[in-house]
Amino acid sequence: MANKKPQNEEQNPEVTRREFLNLAWLASLGFFLIDIGAVTVLFAFPRFKEGEFGGRFVLGKVSEVFPEPDSDPAENPKGKFWLSRLEDGSIIALYKVCTHLGCLYNWQGQEHKFICPCHGSQFQLDGTYIQGPAPRSLDRFVVRLLDENGNEVAVTDEEGLALVPPDEDLQVVVETGQLIRGRPSGEKYPTSEF
Fold this sequence. Notes:
194 residues; Rieske Iron-sulfur Protein; seven-stranded antiparallel beta sheet; 19% helix; 26% strand
C-alpha cells in the first residue's frame, strides 16, 4: 500500500518540460503550415479588380473608345495598352511593352509608327515588326465586344488577329490578363500594311 499515489496527483498530472516543448513545437509548426497554405492559395488564384492591370477594362462603346481608322492610336496608361483602329476598321489592343527588352515604346505620329526609345525597334500601327532588335511583333490583349445585356458578340481569336466590330455601339472590354504573343519578326499579320 505504500505504492499508492495520492489522489491529487492522478487528477492533475504535471506536464513535463519535454511534453511542453513538444506541444509548443507542434503548435508553431501548425501555425506556420496554415500561413504557408493561405499565402499559396492567394498567389495561386490572383484576384485582379476591374480597371486594374491584370484584370479587365470596361471602356465604353467602340465608336467612343477607338480612334478613326488609320489615325493615331489611343493610349491607356493605367491598362498599359494602345487601342488601334486599322485602315479596314478592325480594332486591336497592343501591350505597351516592347518585345525586345521590355521598354515602354511610344507612337510617333510624324512617322506613323511605334518606336521604342531604348534600342530603336519599330512597329506598324497594328504592331507588326518593321525593324530593330525586337524578336517579334508587339503582343496583343484579348478584346471582347459586348451588347447592352452583357452578352459577348465578338472576341479576339487565339492568334490575336484584328477584330472587325459588327456594331459601333458595342461595349469594349480589354482583358489585360490574357496576353497573345506577337508573331515572329518577318511574319506578317493578314491586315498588315508592310
